[in-house]
Amino acid sequence: MVFNSLVYALFLPAVVGLHWTVRPAARRWVLLVASYVFYAAWDWRFLGLIFLSTAVDYTIGRALGEERTERARKALLLTSVVTNLGILGAFKYGGFFVESAASLLARVGLAPNPALLQVVLPVGISFYTFQTISYTFDVYRRELSPERDL
Length: 150
Prior knowledge:
This protein has helices at about 5-20, 25-40, 45-65, 70-105, 125-140. It is mainly alpha-helical. The chain has 2 domains: about 1-40; about 45-150. Helix 1 (about 5-20) runs antiparallel to helix 2 (about 25-40) and helix 3 (about 45-65) packs parallel to helix 5. The radius of gyration is 20 Å and the shape is flat.
C-alpha cells in the first residue's frame, strides 16, 4: 500500500474512524492491527518477521523492566540485538550468500535455478530494525519504561 494510492486514501480514514469509535482501551489494538494490515498490503509473507520482532522486543522490554541483575539485563539486550540484526542481515546479505552458494554449486557441476534462490528485501526492514533496537536500548538504559500493552 503506497501513501499516494486510492487504497491508502480509503484505509487511513477507516482506521482513524475506527480508532475514535472504539473504547479507549481498544485503540492501541486498532492501531497495532492496522499497522500489520498496512505492512501486509505490501507483502503478507513478511508478516512473520514483524510478528517475531514485535514479540521478541515486547517480551525483552518487559523482562528488562523487571530484571535487576546487570548480567541478565545485558544478556536480554544482546538477545534483542542479535535477533533483530540477524533478521536484517539475513535479508540484506542473503542475496550475496545465495549467489556465492550458487556459484560454488555450479563449479561442482550442479546448476541451481538462480530465480528460485532470489532473496526479496522486506520494505522498511532497516528502519524498523533500528527503531526496535533503539527501544530496547532505551529500556535497558532505563530512559524509557517498558511498554505494558502490545
